[in-house]
TrEMBL record, chain A:
PROSITE patterns: ABC_TRANSPORTER_2. Involved in beta-(1-->2)glucan export. Transmembrane domains (TMD) form a pore in the inner membrane and the ATP-binding domain (NBD) is responsible for energy generation. PANTHER family: TEICHOIC ACIDS EXPORT ATP-BINDING PROTEIN TAGH. One of its GO terms (molecular function) is ATP binding. GO terms for cellular component: membrane. InterPro entries: AAA+_ATPase, ABC_transporter-like_ATP-bd, ABC_transpr_TagH-like, Bact_Polysacc_Export_ATP-bd, P-loop_NTPase. The lineage of its organism: Bacteria, Pseudomonadati, Pseudomonadota, Alphaproteobacteria, Hyphomicrobiales. This is ABC transporter ATP-binding protein.
UniProtKB/TrEMBL annotation, chain B:
GO terms for molecular function: ABC-type transporter activity. Pfam families: ABC2_membrane. Signal peptide: none annotated. Its main location: membrane. This is Transport permease protein. Residues 49-275 form the ABC transmembrane type-2 domain. It is found in: Cell inner membrane. It is a multi-pass membrane protein. The chain crosses the membrane at residues 48-72, 84-108, 129-153, 159-184, 196-215, 254-272.
Length: 413, 283
């Protein structure tokens, strides 16, 4: 027995019927049966596909493992099999320890019941006993931090409050193995950070977390190892940062120029970090300090690189650009992945939604070798500058605040 | 956290016919009561009479039957005051119909929950046995009040020692209701057209079960057969045996009903646990 492995998956396969999601009626079933009797090919057999095919991997206890892959690559199916929601067709998985799962926050909340009642109900659905919930009740309410609404039916909660309460319950489940789907995408930035910290704590205490996400920055930050699924097959498993690099190489759209020359295999990934904590964020404070980090990699040596980040508003108008060459990064050569950090100080974009993309040029060429137009969307939230009463807002103040200050003087004196 | 004390979960395709995960079901016993509590609370939120409906419904039916079936049509009530006769049968039948309605929709109504989190699915039907049981308890008290009132008016023998047998009748009733519910629930999850069958079945059960007429109206040689075919028939009679004292019930009929109940329950559990393994792929 390999006790140090929390999760062992051996040869797991699962088939689905394509298109036939939804129940068959008895009549259809009878028709199919008659068709088989007449020795015809059953119509539906051809529509079957493997959502998981012969997937084998293991996760050591105490680690955080990310599951990445494109939509339909089998990530969620894997999670549903591991949580017993559905059965695998072949293969086997062994989970050592108490298993908790969080495929959706607040599944099992009843809108008519109040906060406390839902804590008990949801906690019990997740697998806690009543006495366990009672002992954790105060901590759950404190973690959720939604004020004095525990006696109110949850149907009157805002969606943010709903998510906070739901995650607070799940975070206090304290299982040995926690299986999480992309649930942190909801909730505001502060709460996301708190939830991530809670998940990291979980791993620190010898617990194991398996974590499905599309957010590469989050996986890189949170996970020690990553599993890369492609069309139901296991493509790669290993240290999260190298698996993510491989995934990005396989999925980042390349520029036409790059493809035409056929020599360079390039990829890039853009993240926005808070300089102090190095945490990735997509809710930025107006006037705050942020680092835009562009990570670039190539399978062939790349010479004399120049990088540019473009920021667009929601209508697609270019608002601003961040330039490596103009801001002090000389033309650079690389083969190993490199990161170019653009330090944005006192963010001047007014509150709203923005989309960022990037381009990589070889110096002296007009066309970019790699260009990704919209790879990151972020939100700027309102905040005041200089402790002023008035916040800057898009409706009244335009799109950008120019870096400036103001003073009063009387001419001629 | 020691390695040896850790629980190990093995996930693979199960193939057994009777492969119940009783350990996990036992661990979720608190959930059983919380679901029951939820159902009770939610059922009566934002209603005018709240639990009053539980009392009103059988009383109205009893009044209607007393006037029409007994009064106008003149159907026998086995020498019992008509209200007592109908009430003692109605509470049994309404428990049965409510449980099978709730259980037949288990997979469809909980689709969202079941596709997001696993817990032993049998917990949901079991919890509806409890929440409907609370309704039955309230109705049972109403019957007791009627019994005492009719005794006071000198029209009935009143309570007898037989009433202590009523909990056993409830167990028998719960088993039969669960069995029917599980079979219907498993089938409607796979073939939605069978959903229409439930309400049809409930209506039919009202007439093929001696709720509106005495069991003694069935010719004696067919009574065991009737109990075998419709276990509920004997259960209604068991209820009258406990509450009203007078009844044509024989041990043979009870055994026949228990036999069918047991077989149906076994079938129901097997079907239900086979469906629950993969139903979320197709629902």
């Amino acid at each position: 027995m390999q006790d140090h492995l929390a999760i062992e998956v051996r040869g797991l396969s699962k088939r689905y019927r394509r298109g036939a999601i939804g129940m068959s009626s008895l009549r259809e079933e009878v028709e199919l049966f008659l068709a088989r009797r007449r020795d015809q090919r059953p119509r539906r057999a051809s529509r079957e596909f493997y959502a998981l095919k012969d997937v084998t991997f293991s996760v050591p206890a105490g680690s955080v493992c990310g599951i990445i892959g494109r939509n339909g690559s089998g990530k969620t199916t894997l999670l549903k099999v591991l949580t017993s929601i559905t059965e695998p067709e072949e293969g086997e998985a062994t989970l050592r320890g108490r298993v908790g799962s969080l495929l959706e926050v607040g599944a099992g909340f009843h809108p008519e019941l109040d906060g406390i009642e839902n804590i008990y109900l949801n906690g019990a659905i997740l697998g806690m006993s009543k006495s366990e919930i009672t002992s954790k009740l105060d901590r759950i309410i404190q973690f959720a931090d939604i004020g004095d609404v525990m006696e109110t039916p949850v149907k009157r909660y805002s969606s943010g409050m709903y998510v906070r309460l739901a995650f607070a319950i799940a975070a206090h489940l304290e299982p040995d193995i926690l299986l999480v789907d992309e649930v942190l995408a909801v909730g505001d930035a502060d709460f996301q950070r708190k939830s991530l910290a809670k998940m990291k704590d979980a791993a620190g205490e010898g617990r194991t977390v398996l974590f499905v996400s599309h957010n590469m920055a989050m996986v890189r930050q949170l996970c020690d190892i990553a599993v890369y699924l492609e069309a139901g097959h296991l493509k790669q498993i290993g240290a999260s940062s190298s698996v993510i690099d491989a995934y990005l190489l396989g999925s980042t759209p390349r520029s036409t120029q790059g493809e035409r020359t056929g020599t360079d295999e390039l990829w890039g990934e853009l993240r926005i970090l808070e300089p102090s904590s190095e945490t990735a964020c997509d809710h930025l404070k107006f006037g705050g300090d942020y680092d835009f980090v562009l990570r670039l990699g190539a399978s062939q040596p790349f010479r004399r690189g120049v990088a540019e980040i473009s920021i667009f508003d929601q209508e697609g108008a270019r608002i601003s650009s961040l330039e490596s060459l103009a801001e002090g990064v000389d033309q650079f050569d690389f083969t190993q992945p490199v990161e170019i950090v653009f330090n944005v100080r006192s963010l001047g974009l007014l509150p709203g939604t923005y989309i960022a993309g990037f381009s990589l040029f070889a110096w002296g060429e007009e066309e970019p070798r790699l260009s990704v137009e919209a790879c990151l969307s972020f939100e700027v939230v309102a905040a005041t500058v200089n402790d002023a009463y008035w916040p800057y807002l898009r409706e009244y103040h335009g799109i950008v605040r120019l870096s400036h200050s103001a003073n009063l003087r009387v001419p001629g004196s | 956290m020691t390695g040896s004390a850790k629980r190990i979960t093995i996930i693979k395709r199960r193939s057994g016919w009777f492969d119940l995960d009783l350990r996990r079901a036992w661990e979720h016993r608190d959930l059983l009561f919380l679901f029951a509590l939820r159902d009770i609370k939610v059922r009566h939120k934002q209603t005018l009479l709240g639990p009053g409906w539980l009392i009103l419904q059988p009383l109205v039916w009893t009044a209607v039957f007393t006037v029409t079936i007994s009064g106008v049509a003149g159907v026998s009530t086995a020498n019992q005051p008509a209200p007592l006769f109908y009430l003692s049968g109605l509470i049994v039948w309404s428990y049965f119909s409510q449980v099978i309605f709730a259980t037949s929709l288990v997979f469809i109504e909980n689709e969202h929950l079941f596709s997001k989190i696993y817990f032993p699915r049998i917990v949901v039907p079991l919890s509806s046995l409890i929440s409907t049981g609370v309704a039955l308890l309230i109705q049972f008290v109403v019957v007791l009040v009627f019994l005492i009132a009719f005794h006071w008016m000198g029209k009935s023998d009143g309570l007898s020692w037989r009433i202590v047998g009523f909990p056993l009748v409830v167990l028998h009733l719960a088993a039969a209701s669960l069995a029917t519910g599980l079979i219907l629930g498993a089938s409607t999850a796979k073939y939605r057209d069978l959903g229409f069958m439930t309400s049809f079945l409930v209506q039919v059960s009202m007439f093929v079960t001696p709720v509106l007429y005495p069991f003694s109206a069935i010719p004696e040689q067919y009574r065991v057969m009737a109990s075998l075919a419709n276990p509920l028939a004997a259960i209604v009679e068991e209820s009258r045996w406990c509450l009203l004292g007078e009844s044509m019930l024989t041990p043979g009929q009870v055994l026949a009903s228990l036999l069918t109940t047991a077989i149906a329950l076994a079938c129901g559990v097997v079907l239900y646990q086979r469906v629950e393994r993969t139903v979320m792929d197709t629902i």
